[in-house]
Amino acid sequence: MSNIALLIVDMQVGILENQDFPIFQKEQLISNINTLISKAKTAHKLVIFIRHTEASGPLEMNTSGWHISSEIKVDEQDIIINKYTPDCFHQTPLLGLLEEQSIQTLVIAGLQSEYCIDTTCRRAFTLGYSTILVSDAHSTFDNDILSAQKIIEHHNQVLYDWFVSLNRHDQIKFI
Fold first, then answer.
1. CATH number at residue 65
2. Which of 48, 54, 104, 117 is disulfide-compatible with 59, CB 3.0–4.6 A?
3. What does residue 10 show for φ and ψ, rounded to 5 degrees?
């Protein structure tokens, strides 16, 4: 796993601060992701932030909601990639960057479990990446059918083994 990178997906103000759709265990999610970021940076591994971008709405480019939350440890030299669909690879420079850096393993965390996390894990698998989904570092909010906790549990179970290996944030080692 020497060629490993951390991919942090959509930890943006417009999602994290949306009072109508509160993120499940938001404070713990932020803490777990910041722990992952610190571990990756201590090991001198690539940390990539993905930022969802919409033509209008809470994630419209250059609005306050579009920015990565100030609660997330982003440094000036960190890489931020904008995306326009749930797939972090679709029409973005992510694949080229990973190839350029000879990355073989991706550690994935962020928002939302049933959209961007699920899609990106599946796409990473089809592209040949060894992918680790951090089971306690992705989240979502309740919908009309399932609670956020059930959505997270469902995606951990569905993605595990076929598409990803599953580890808690405190089990991740960037070596």
1. 3.40.50.850
2. 54
3. 55, 40
